[in-house]
Amino acid sequence: MDDNLRELVLGVLTAGVTAALGWFLRTHLWRRRLRRTQRFFGLPPHSRCLLVVNNDPSVTERAVARHDVYALLELSALIKDCEAQADIVAHDAAEQGFGERTEFCLGGPVSNSRTAAHLKSLLPGVSVGTDPEPGPDRAAFTIGGETHRMEKGTSEHVLLARLTAGENGTQRPVFLFAGQTGITNQAAARYLARHHVRLARRHGHKGTFCLLLRVHNSEAYGPDMVELVADVTRAATAPPAAASGGGTRRGSARASG
């Protein structure tokens, strides 16, 4: 074998080994990210979860609002990426406990009775204005003594929460998307899809958190202009008496996200 042929063979072998090592490293990193995502969502491979859908409060028959359908699509993509499967169930038909399967619960307490139950059990420091009559406190969130009112189409709020009830995070989590409007539910689902890696780093793969988000000018920008108002976990999970204090205001100062 002459020198030119030897160099050609060595070059091919080197390129093959380099490509194989690169493929192995990329696969290893991808699998590690996937395992972290699966732990955060409580979705091991081939597991099943619940998508609890609300009812469109603007119609009398059973229906899901358009933006809530978009939110379901966002969540379905997340579930598929985790190599899991979802069972879709209506909010008034999900007569079971929580913790055995990961649950994604969509909608505020007016349109979703299961959200109302989760707020009462897991977020007792949150009060939501459920009066059907028009008024300044309709759909408003009161957390830690501060009231966050809705200006429809201009400034709307949504709670994004990851909740567990078991000790040491042994139970599967409940993800709550409780918005003042349908478009805020979609905004929260999109926020989770885009920022779940950062949320896992900040709160841990088994941690509980409750974030207050604000959607700006949804009439013009849809669900894309989202601001993190505050991490309200401590006030939201405390009993109402312990969480009281502070004043009423329409909006909160921007918190770093």
Largest sheet: 7 strands, mixed
Oligomer: single chain
Q: What is the number of helical segments per DSSP (H or I, 4+ residues)? A: 7
> Could you tell me the mean pLDDT?
84
Strand order in the largest sheet: 2-1-3-8-7-9-10
Question: SSE order, as H and E?
Answer: HEHEEHEEEEEHEHEHH
Summarize the SSE layout with pairings:
Elements: H1 3-41, E1 48-53, H2 66-81, E2 85-90, E3 103-106, H3 113-122, E4 126-128, E5 141-143, E6 146-148, E7 155-163, E8 174-179, H4 182-203, E9 209-216, H5 218-221, E10 226-231, H6 233-237, H7 240-243
Helix pairs in contact: 2-4
Short description:
The chain is α/β, with parallel strands linked by helices. It has seven helices and ten strands.
Give a description of the structure.
This protein is an alpha/beta fold. Helices cover 39% and strands 21% of the residues. The chain has seven helices and ten strands. The protein has helices spanning 3-41, 66-81, 113-122, 182-203, 218-221, 233-237, 240-243; strands at residues 48-53, 85-90, 103-106, 126-128, 141-143, 146-148, 155-163, 174-179, 209-216, 226-231. The strands form two sheets. It has a seven-stranded mixed beta sheet, with helices on both faces. Strands 4-5-6 form a three-stranded antiparallel beta sheet. Helix 2 (66-81) links the parallel strand 1 (48-53) and strand 2. Helix 2 packs parallel to helix 4. The longest helix has 39 residues, at 3-41. The radius of gyration is 22 Å and the shape is elongated. It starts with a helix and ends in a 14-residue tail after the last helix. Mean pLDDT is 84; it is low at 243-257.
